[in-house]
Amino acid sequence: MKVFRAGMALAGLMLAGCQQAPAQAAGGTIEAVNHTRWAINHFSVNGQSGIDIIGPHQGGGGGCCFRAPAQWQPGMTVKIDWETGVHDMEGFPGYADREKYIAWDKKMRSQNKQHTATVPVPDYTGQKTCGITVHFLPCDKVKVTTSCHIYSDPQYPVKEPLSMPEPATCAR
User: Fold this and answer.
1) Which listed residue, of 4, 31, 124, 133, carries a Cα 20 to 30 Å from 63's Cα?
2) In the 8-state DSSP scheme, what is residue 4?
């Protein structure tokens, strides 16, 4: 009987600890939709990786995990870090000639650019949340959503087309 009581007391303490943790909405993966002509070599949301390489005009990701707070608050933001680059194997010399490969790799890497943006999290009050999806737009703009709908669903909140032209100049 003493073991049973001790077990119940321990279970009660564990439950009390869980109840004191900050309430969180349903979590999910970190996904992305790339609306640009550049590859997204890698990206992260608040330092959590979204998995690497999303080609131009493609979707991907699948990094774990993003969990939104149970209640949306005005002013909520996430920090997105990403690297863009060329997603083109044109001119790839293979690996046999090391000098040619190193020169090609250096040329490809020279086109990579690092980006950071702090973006607002749209109001999700009264809606189920499912991780986060980052939309990479031309001119290094970013939008995010916690929607459970998929990009092709009419109820999906981000309406930009997958293939967006890059303007000649971007407003800063």
Assistant:
1) 124
2) H
